[in-house]
Amino acid sequence: MAVTTFGESVKRTEDPRLITGRGKYVDDVRLTGMAHIAFVRSPYGHANIKSVDTSAAMDSPGVIAVFTGVDLQEELGGLPVGWMLPDLKQPAHPPLAFETVRYTGDAVAVVVADTAYQAQDGAALVDVDYEVLPAVVNAELATKDGVPLLHKEAPNNLGFDWEVGGGDYDEAIKDPDVIIVKERIVNQRLIPNSMETRGVVADYDAGKGNLTLYTSTQIPHLVKLLFSLVTGWPEQKVRVIAPDVGGGFGSKLYLYAEEVVAGIVAKHVQRPVKWIESRSEAYVSTAHGRDHICDVEIAGKKDGEIVGIKVDLYANLGAYISTFAPLIPTYLFGLMLGGVYKMPNIDCKVHGVFTNTTPVDAYRGAGRPEAAYLVERMVSRFAQEIGRDPIVVRRKNMLQAHKNGRAVTTGVMYDSGDYKGNLNKALEIFDYKAFRAEQRAARRDGKLLGVGIAAYIEICGMAPSAVASSLGAGAGLWESSNVRVHPTGKATIYIGTSPHGQGHETTMAQLVSSELGIPIEDIEVLHGDTDMGQFGTGTFGSRSIAVGGAALFNSLQKVKAKTHRLASHLLEADPKFVTFSNGTFAVEDIADKTLTIQEVAGQAYAAANLPPGMEPGLEEVSFFDPQNFAWPNGTHLCVVEVDQDTGKVEVQRYVAVDDFGNVLNPMIVDGMTHGGIAQGVGQALSEAAVYTDDGQLLSGSLMDYALPSADMFPMLELDRTVSPSPSNPIGVKGAGEAGTIAASPAVMNAVIDAIAHLGVKHMDMPATSEKVWRAIQGAKEARRAARAVARGGS
Amino acid sequence: MSTEISVTVNGTEHTRSVEPRLLLAHFLRDVLDLTGTHVGCDTSQCGACTVHLNEEAVKSCTVFAVQANGAEVTTIEGLADGDSYTNVQQGFWDEHGLQCGFCTPGMIMVSEALLKQNPDPSESEIRAGIAGNYCRCTGYQNIVNAIGAAAKAGS
What we know:
CATH topology of the domain at 1-30 and 472-596 in chain A: Aldehyde Oxidoreductase, domain 4
Low-confidence stretches of chain A: none
Shape of chain B: globular
Low-confidence stretches of chain B: none
Order of helices and strands of chain B: EEHEEEHHHH
Largest sheet of chain B: 5 strands, mixed
CATH superfamily of the largest domain in chain B: Beta-grasp domain
Largest sheet of chain A: 7 strands, mixed
Largest interface: A-B, 57 and 61 residues
Number of helices of chain A: 20
Oligomer: heterodimer
Helix content of chain B: 25-40%
Strand order of the largest sheet of chain A: 3-5-1-12-9-10-11
Strand order of the largest sheet of chain B: 2-1-5-3-4
Number of strands of chain A: 28
Mean pLDDT of chain B: 97
CATH class of the domain at 1-30 and 472-596 in chain A: Alpha Beta
Strand content of chain A: 15-25%
Helix content of chain A: 25-40%
CATH topology of the largest domain in chain B: Ubiquitin-like (UB roll)
Structural class of chain A: alpha+beta
Strand content of chain B: 15-25%
Number of domains of chain B: 2
Structural class of chain B: alpha+beta
Radius of gyration of chain A: 28 Å
Number of strands of chain B: 5
Radius of gyration of chain B: 15 Å
């Protein structure tokens, strides 16, 4: 029986079921009479639907029903937009298209059959007659005159124009000492690829009119709310269950068409229905991430002082506005353009653009990796331009350490951090000077080594609801917890967050154990079932411990207060003299006057001897809404070797120093950091979603999209600084996205550093062998040509 | 059209009539209800469906159930003896080798096969040995540590 503490690497309580094959994911849900559904999806990027012939599908063995977009048009409603911006265009987003398809993968019909194989057979037999229309996939091109228009209410395919800034960039660059460095930087489209694809089981109870949706989601409560708003189904008659969820990375953070369709279809066929997304289907039907085309300039002086950054961004929205899409390239991006630097002048304009591609929304980091990549790439680019070391330039411009709030140029308030402390610690672990010497020596031997640095900060712990609402949020972003201590002193917790790999069953239990002194084995953590407990917001934006953990902490303080009062009463002692530690109440200086929390819990239910006015039972709820966001930050360093002959990039060393504030479970936080870094390295070196001009996804399967594998990485070296966050009572900041944010600029800065002496200044991600090889050859060619000109001129 | 097959799974023989096109992964999951074997892709890349077929690690989405006729199959459910885990399972738990857990059964099955072939692998041999299995959560580091720990425990 173990009482666990805050800061202890407690082994995960989830794991015994997961290492023995006894987890329960959506595809493992089996209900009596369950049928299966398959979607018919557009093979074209843009087309009008002339007709849909379902007769052959209906005759296919096992097929129970086929529904087209027209059939269900009234019942399905339109998919919601959860974040408003001024003048945001919100074209209708039907879950099943009935007039026009706007991206490859847009669903047009659904087939219900006895087995999954039969549903797929049926889907293949649905004959859709399309009138193919011209398509556009590039966000900048889509805004030009004369290109195909996706939605008539959005001229030039513009979903929104948005801007943010601070200081006066245009004025600042009038200083004749200012040097400006410009680049066009593309942050390529990525496909999230959680290992479990999405899936839904919809179970309709005709007797009660109730619907249960088992769905692989990060936000079961919001799915319930949004499903109800979209379909008009009474909210109290919808139950959403997120069982074990096999990863999300932001891609399971929306109400999706398939969830709505499955619910409505289940009612029609009066049988439970299951849909499991195939991987190739996931590539077109689950939201993508990133996809920025950005003209950026950074301005500074010869001594390394940076005076500002200016950004003009085309952000690809895809064909429709996904639930949180308006938030990602605006606030989560623009507010972060100062990075960890003074950056006194910021000028940022963002154009959100519709294209004939899968909708783009949050993917791990969501806006913040794009911002950190721009800032960190450009700071290194600026250092290169003025001939100074990138570390020196960073140190010169970094914000001073602070413990309780620092307003920055974009108007937000960073909570706490020691940015130079992170840098110094990383450099110490890394031994930067020694590396530079090694790099010079290697170059003499024809070996190309490079070091890349990225110092980042991110806006996490979503969020203060009032602030989020003023910026456009369609729902509150607080978090909730319910703590029920049973008469035996064991406890059941219901949390509003919805883990999908983060280990909340362990960490939340750990927090309960450390606060109440109840052994961790005696604590059950429930989540992801909207009928089990109070509303919760969900798991995304590195918020679960910073907001959800804080909500739990607050419930636990209420339990402590009540049990303390009850224990004092039972011990017949003045509460002032009753102490509580390790689960035991004791009276100061009286050795034998003690009660365990289990005994006190029993008394709370027995209710035979309660203090005046105290209600029986022991159950407390808290809803926590922070006053500020939480701001994780850090410095990462990466070493790569570039093979001159093949262009192949190998990551040789990776050092990360992060400030996540207080850390509840270091083992779990390290694990998330590893995974985040791997995804950032993946973006830097191999991953890219590629469309043809007419909207075909070329990288449309795991065969074509290069996910990182185990042989791409060295052992990552992690360390931390700790600046507790003043934004929540437990001082944590969140750790889910940091690695992804820091890794892509760290790796790309290393790649450029390895070949900068050849004349390479920038290269877009991913730094594939071919791209690097071409950059090296191009640079060599340019030098040869320059020498020839010089010789010719002499 | 269906064909009768007999497959011994985790020591128990099962005789069933199946469609010739039925994948072994779906036979295990949907016919025998052994849902520990996961399906993570449709192109044989991810390895979540890895099982042992006659003691060799295979991706069960790339084998038809009829091809397993007469064969011995071991799945993740067949490894632990009650609460007594194999060294690999224990290693995954001790070293935090999993997060969402979806790739884990396949990772464990491929790791078991790797250690059988090479009981004392180097780090790079471990990384190469599991390069056919994707994990999106862990960055592989703690999986490599887990396999290393299992090798040590087995020596």
